[in-house]
Amino acid sequence: MTCVLRAMQATAQQPQRREVLIPAYTCYSVAASIVRAGLRPRLYDIDPETLDFDPASIQRVAPNNVLAIISANLYGIPNSLDRLEALARDNGLYLIDDAAQALGARFKGRPLGGYGDVGILSFEKGKNITTLKGGAIVGGSGPLMERIERARDTLPGSPLVGTLMSWAKLPAYALFFRPELYGLVQSLPWLELGITRYEEDFAIEQYSPSLAGLALRLCDRLDQLNRQRNANAERVSNALRPFPEVRLLRRLEGSQEALVRLPVFVESAALRTRLIAELNAAGIGASGSYPQALCDVPEVRRLLPAEDLEMPKARRVAATVVTLPTHPYCPPDLADRIGSVLRRVTQSVAP
Ligand SMILES: *Cc1c(COP(=O)(O)O)cnc(C)c1O
Predict the structure, then answer these.
(1) Residue 224 CA, ligand 1 centroid: distance in Å
(2) Is the N or the C terminus of the chain less surrounded, counting Cβ atoms within 10 Å?
(3) Ligand 1 — pocket residues by CB below 6 A?
(4) 55-66: per-residue pLDDT in tens?
(5) Beta-bridge mates of residue 262
């Protein structure tokens, strides 16, 4: 993302465009990559019903100083990318389609990562496919992509030790998904599972060719994996529908998801905390996702103009979201088990 933004700034040749518009609820490293590129993050709010962008919140920002706008497609759920693309085009902005969590998803027939000027894929932990690190930039031809390719060619190669470490950790990571080993693997600190940190001094280096080869192999199974994930998510969603305490998202028309996690929303803070704890105690990897909206992450907040400091809808998402596993090793009775934990927890926590 940092390489892409630097290339966009060089290609745009409009030095006053130093702002990058991002969702107020997304991966913290999106904000960090902007800062690392020497640019300023600006936020737009999101719709808690769909996780799509809030158009009014984007239109509030004067476009003259904006270089690019970035999508989120969190949990493998498409944003309305056709509208975002039109918005970017009408205002002379670049669009980066962040498909880090949405490889294999589609919107109105087009693959995610394929909207806008450039797409971003990630093969980090917890993504649709993983080699523990690495990612890909998706783009067409033209001066921007040529500049990105030149930038890639001048990056340092991936260090051998790091690559060997990734190959060594991969089997442990694969075990993480086995429900019977969940507690054990969860306790291995060097896998850094479920940790959200804001980090600006990350390495920017080429993707190891051996890990990239593994990613390509895994891509052969992507559609099958996503089908399994979506089917698991559907079963869990159905088990949750009887509970008024749990809200499910509304789907945008034309979206074909790649549900890397299933996000649901619990308004009661006490119930949400209890539910996450009880699901984990039952060996089900529920998580609160990113703990804060970006306007409340101190390292980001201090860079924001006054008008970006309050993002009420993103805050509400951060405070209420619970993500549930959808991976192919989910046991066949996962939905029933989640249902029975919910029944127990809703009966014991007062509304
Ligand atoms: C993980 C993630 C990123 C960053 O990808 P890395 O490969 O971890 O740098 C960017 N955007 C979103 C939405 C992500 O989930």
Answers:
(1) 22
(2) C
(3) 26-27, 29-30, 72, 74, 98, 100-101, 122, 124, 135
(4) 999 999 999 999
(5) 324
